[in-house]
Amino acid sequence: MTGILPRRATAPPAPAPDRPAAPAPAPDGPAALVAGVARGRAPWSEERLAGLAEEAARRTGAVSDPVATVRVDGAAARVDLDLVVEHGAELTAVAGVVRRRVAARIEAYAGLTVESVTVTVVGLRLPAEAASPTGGDRPPRRDHARGPGPGTDAREAT
C-alpha cells in the first residue's frame, strides 16, 4: 500500500475530567539540587556526602584509608576527615590538597557551601618492607655460597 499517511497530532491529549493531570517531571542536575534545598530538603544524605569526601581524599596519592564525617546545616556543610598519610609526605601540603579537593567536590556535586574541612592525620603508612627470611629483627644470615664474609678465615667458610 502506498500513499501519504496523515500526521499525528503534536499536542498532548487533554486529561480526562475525572483524572487529575500528571505532575510535571522533576528537574534533574543542578536545578534539582537548588529546588531541593529551597524546599528545605537536602538532596544528599550526610552519609553519601561523607562517601563523596572520602573518594575525593583517596584521589590524593599520599592518602589512604580516609574516614569522613559530614554535618549539614541548611545549605552549608562541615567536613571532618581522618587520614593515613604515606611516610615522608609533607603533611601540610597533603592536608591542603585534600581540603581543596574535598570542598570542590562537595560544592560541585551537592551544591552546598563547604564552611570547613578539618583534616586529622591519624597514622603514617610506612613503605613496604622486604620480607626477611629470618622473620625477625636479626640481620639475614650470610650466604656461604658467595664466599667468606669480611673478617672470616677462609678455613672457617668451608
Automatic annotation (TrEMBL):
It comes from the Bacteria. Residues 12-28 have a biased composition (Pro residues). Residues 1-11 have a biased composition (Low complexity). Pfam families: Asp23. Residues 1-32, 126-158 are annotated as: Disordered. Belongs to the asp23 family. This is Asp23/Gls24 family envelope stress response protein. It comes from Micromonospora fulviviridis.
